[in-house]
Amino acid sequence: MDPRKRYLPESRYSRPTVVLFDSGATHTFISKSYALKHRLKMSKLKENYHITASGSPIDTTLVVRRLKLDIGTESYTINPVVLPHQGIDVILGMNWMTENNAVLDIGSRIVQIRSSITGKILRVHMTNQKHIEPTVNASELTEIKKIPVVCEFSDVFPEELSGLPPDRDVEFRTELVPGTAPISKRPYRMAPDELKELKT
């Protein structure tokens, strides 16, 4: 089991909810199936989010605004990004844990959440699940027009970048003779004009 991840059975308006505290997730997420099942209002994000889960890229454009989440005696308002394919109901990532001063005590399987208003510490005992979902990370997609190199050579780039280059059957590598040490040679002497041009 990944020590960064723990599950907490909780409820939202008496609805059973599996909450995952994940220090490896950058954002807070909610599964689309859970949002649809409980008829939560989903709205469009200003920009698409590119999410990597299990090594597979997923794009999402939806978010649930101002969702109330009750943990123990405390209530929190979250704005989770909607994941199209996710078995866990809600993932509380580093943004939420940092904002709410959450500390994961892995040895005791306890989450401590300190209220920034009252200073009260909420201690929540966690339970384990047999199946652990992989860490999820999110980042805003960069528009092509914001990448300087692409703008400079716009004639060789497509209007939409499809993603990383595909895996190739033959991987190109430059092989060195075993035991080869880094080559170190004194630079050739140059005329002042040539040296000036090289430095610019």
Automatic annotation (TrEMBL):
InterPro entries in the record: Peptidase_aspartic_dom_sf (IPR021109), RTL1-rel (IPR032567)
Superkingdom to which the source organism belongs: Eukaryota
Pfam family name, one: RVP_2
SUPFAM superfamilies linked: Acid proteases (SSF50630)
Coiled-coil parts of chain: none
Name recorded for this polypeptide: Uncharacterized protein
Species annotation: Paspalum notatum var. saurae
